[in-house]
TrEMBL record:
The lineage of its organism: Eukaryota, Metazoa, Chordata, Craniata, Vertebrata. Residues 430-497 form the BTB domain. Residues 1-21 form the signal peptide. One of its GO terms (biological process) is blood vessel development. InterPro entries: BTB/POZ_dom (IPR000210), RCBTB1_BTB_POZ (IPR047996), RCC1-like_dom (IPR058923), RCC1/BLIP-II (IPR009091), Reg_chr_condens (IPR000408), Signaling_Regulatory_Domain (IPR051625), SKP1/BTB/POZ_sf (IPR011333). The keyword Transcription regulation does not apply. Coiled coil: none annotated. This is Regulator of chromosome condensation (RCC1) and BTB (POZ) domain containing protein 1. RCC repeats lie at residues 101-152, 154-206, 207-259, 260-311, 312-363. Keywords: Repeat, Signal. The keyword Signal applies. SMART domains: BTB.
């Protein structure tokens, strides 16, 4: 939850035929499908299905703070989050599940999509009691929006917009709170859900696909264009096929079978079904152009599609108005074309039915993006600095929704920075002690040499200190020197302004310019009438020109009060004279 910014580590282990990765999100070996907003952490593949090896196993933390909605939450609240999804036409709604399996929602609440029982928006997370204790394995959302959620037990819940019966309850009434969807699903265990704009798909444990909702283009796969009010099994070409993953475009549907075949149905005006034509399909059709390839993952954008094979090859087809196919132009493609052929093996692809953005991750952890990115049309895959595809959608997609249900792992793993911070003043691992005012501070020579030029010089063979186990410090106070050493381990300073003056002196002596700037910021934030003149004196003494100017202006602006403090009359005579002259030149004594 890579929550960033914390360091993220990527471990790639090459095995025969596939790649195992530790990266920024969780997906189970059961499915690598990129259904918009849905979880890839689904229940295990049924024993009756024998899927080929999946290419992505991810278990590190994702930084949900990249999504503006989550910046409202405290660090403690973020730490309680296990899964999260941002959705909605403007990315104004969010749902998250805690480690205790409590489900919370907050945001605008369009079409009752928060499921709180009312139409009120909320900036404060509200708990959905009806889902309490249920382990969520898959989640998806539509454009209304409506929301589908599958639990570990195989139950499916729906709520939100229902103008086309996309909730599957047989009505067109809004779903104000989560309701179990059971029609035609008795004794079926739902392991994955996917939503188009106003239609829905569910994948069961035994590899069957059910569809319902809006069907103007055949996206339900029933053979007609009549809306489907309740879940209906999709058959025809899928009959006797074991499906392992599903995905939805706005008004199209896709499925991948256990032998790597891809099927599509619904709207095809931009070629998003990849059939070589642009005619709508009322029932599933196999993508003949992918014959001979074994597809692991399918991802559907607004009107384009991506497919990833077991050899790490990426194919794209459909709409290309924004360059979302990554072909270098904006021409639609009616059949799959290979993309990023010159790049290394691809291990993950990402797209979302509410955006025109595409993303992919390579075996070495490089993340590329293309398509509509913050209003720009990027027609070729562009290498980013991100460590996971989710960050592409957080920072560049419009709207900035999540393309899947994110899963956060809050384990005991520590980053390098966290480990260094933990070992500061640790007697168990230190190899050096500083003695100040009779107190010891335990440190590590290697860290000091890496972080500070002063210590790099000190710990040379011609310095006496290089052979010592205890170094006495008498020119600085204990709080000041401890703060300095802690800064070398953490990059932070936590001192009151008065002590920061001493640290400013140390930073000046040791030529630590960044620390010097930090001290000046602390002093500026802590300036008062009582300490202003003392701080001004320190700024002059340590040649901190910016701080000197700041303190001088503060003293002039509060001249009457400052001149009545003890610090003002205890100051050196020459400095007092210089201050009065300078203040006079600024017009401080004019009536």
């Amino acid at each position: 939850m890579c929550i960033n910014s914390p360091c993220t580590f990527l471990l790639s282990l090459s095995l025969p035929g596939f790649v195992m990765e530790r990266c920024c999100s969780i997906s189970s070996a059961s499915s690598c499908s990129a259904s918009p907003g849905r979880s890839t952490a689904t229940a295990p593949i049924p024993k009756s299905i024998s899927p080929f090896p999946r290419s992505i196993i991810s278990v590190a933390m994702v930084d949900v703070s990249k999504w503006p909605l989550f910046t409202l939450m405290s660090a403690q609240e973020i730490a309680s989050v296990r899964q999260a999804c941002v959705f909605g036409t403007s990315a104004n709604e969010a749902i998250y599940i805690t480690h205790d399996d409590e489900v919370y929602v907050f945001g605008l609440n369009c079409s009752n999509c928060l499921g709180t029982g009312d139409s009120q928006s909320t900036i404060v997370p509200r708990k959905l009691d009806g889902l309490s204790g249920k382990k969520v394995v898959s989640l998806s959302y539509g454009s209304g929006p409506h929301v589908l959620l599958a639990t570990e037990e195989g139950d499916m819940y729906a709520w939100g917009h229902n103008g086309y019966s996309q909730l599957g309850n047989g009505t067109t009434n809004q779903g104000v709170c989560p309701v179990l969807v059971s029609t035609n699903l008795q004794n079926k265990r739902v392991i994955e859900v996917a939503c188009g704009s106003h239609h829905s798909l569910a994948l069961t444990h035994d590899g069957e696909v059910f569809a319902w909702g809006y069907n103007n283009c055949g996206q339900v796969g029933s053979g007609s264009t009549a809306n489907q009010p309740t879940p209906r099994k999709v058959s025809n070409c899928l009959q006797n096929k074991a499906v392992v993953s599903i995905a939805c475009g706005q008004t199209s549907s896709m499925a991948v079978s256990d032998n790597g075949e891809v099927y599509g149905w619904g709207y095809n005006g931009n070629g998003q079904l990849g059939l070589g034509n642009n005619g709508n399909q009322l029932t599933p059709c196999r993508l003949a152009a992918l014959q001979g390839l074994c597809v692991l993952q399918i991802a559907s954008g607004y009107a384009h599609s991506l497919a990833l094979t077991d050899e790490g090859l990426l194919y794209a087809w459909g709409a290309n108005t924004y360059g979302q196919l990554g072909t270098g132009n904006k021409s639609n493609q009616l059949s799959p074309v290979q993309v990023m052929a010159e790049k290394e093996r691809i291990v993950e692809i990402a797209a979302c039915h509410s955006t025109h953005t595409s993303a992919a991750k390579t075996q070495s952890g490089q993340v590329y993006m293309w398509g509509q990115c913050r209003g720009q049309s990027i027609v070729l895959p562009h290498l980013t600095h991100f460590s996971c595809t989710d960050d592409v959608f957080a920072c560049f997609a419009t709207p900035s929704v999540m393309w899947r249900l994110l899963s956060m792992e809050h384990d005991d793993f520590l980053t390098v920075a966290q480990s260094l911070k933990k070992e500061f003043d640790s007697p168990e691992t230190s190899d050096l002690k500083f003695s100040i005012d009779g107190k010891f501070i335990h440190v590590h020579k290697a860290v000091l040499k890496i972080r500070c030029e002063h210590f790099r010089s000190m710990f040379q063979s011609h310095w006496n200190e290089d052979m010592k186990e205890v170094i006495e410090i008498d020119q600085f106070s204990y709080p000041v020197y401890r703060s300095f050493l802690e800064f070398l381990y953490t990059d932070t300073v936590d001192l009151p302004p008065e002590d920061a003056i001493g640290l400013l002196d140390l930073a000046t002596s040791y030529c630590e310019n960044r620390l010097k700037r930090l001290c000046q910021h602390i002093i500026k934030r802590g300036i008062t009438v009582e300490n202003a003149f003392s701080l001004l004196s320190a700024a002059v003494r340590y040649d901190a020109e910016d701080l000197e100017e700041f303190c001088f202006k503060f003293c002039v602006n509060h001249l009457t009060e400052v001149t009545q403090t003890a610090a003002f009359w205890q100051i050196d005579g020459n400095m007092l004279k210089e201050f009065i002259c300078r203040a006079s030149r600024c017009g401080a004594f004019k009536n």
